[in-house]
């Protein structure tokens, strides 16, 4: 149980941080990036279920890639809303 939460936080932090680097000007600091990464993982899980690419290698790498994709989508949407 506690290990799963720690893994979620690590995956979220990595994905959110990477997405913040890709989408310039949309980083929210460490806690914000973790939240964006976790929400991004949920978004990617919903969008890519059954249709997403199969990532070879350890499962954690695939989770980070999916969370990254979702976090980038989320940051682009946030950036568009902030601009409007």
Range of strand content: under 5%
* Residue share in helix: over 70%
The rough form would be described as globular
Q: Give the beta-strand count.
A: 0
This entry's quaternary arrangement is single chain
Largest sheet: none
Termini separation = 41 Å
Rg calculated over all Cα atoms = 12 Å
**Which parts are unreliable, with pLDDT below 50 for 5 consecutive residues or more?**
none
Secondary-structure-derived class: mainly alpha
Descriptive key words:
3 helices; globular
Q: Please, could you describe this protein's structure?
A:
Helices cover 79% and strands 0% of the residues. The chain has 84 residues and is an all-alpha fold. The mean pLDDT is 78.
List the helices and strands and how they pair.
Elements: H1 2-22, H2 29-48, H3 59-83
Helix pairs in contact: 1-2, 1-3, 2-3
Q: Quick gist of this model?
A:
The chain is mainly α. It has helices at 2-22, 29-48, 59-83.
């Amino acid at each position: 149980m506690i290990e799963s939460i720690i893994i979620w936080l690590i995956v979220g932090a990595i994905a959110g941080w990477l997405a913040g680097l890709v989408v310039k000007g949309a980083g929210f600091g460490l806690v914000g990036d973790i939240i964006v990464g976790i929400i991004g993982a949920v978004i990617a899980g919903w969008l890519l279920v059954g249709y997403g690419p199969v990532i070879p290698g350890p499962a954690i790498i695939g989770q980070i890639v999916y969370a990254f994709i979702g976090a980038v989508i989320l940051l682009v949407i946030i950036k568009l809303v902030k601009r409007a």
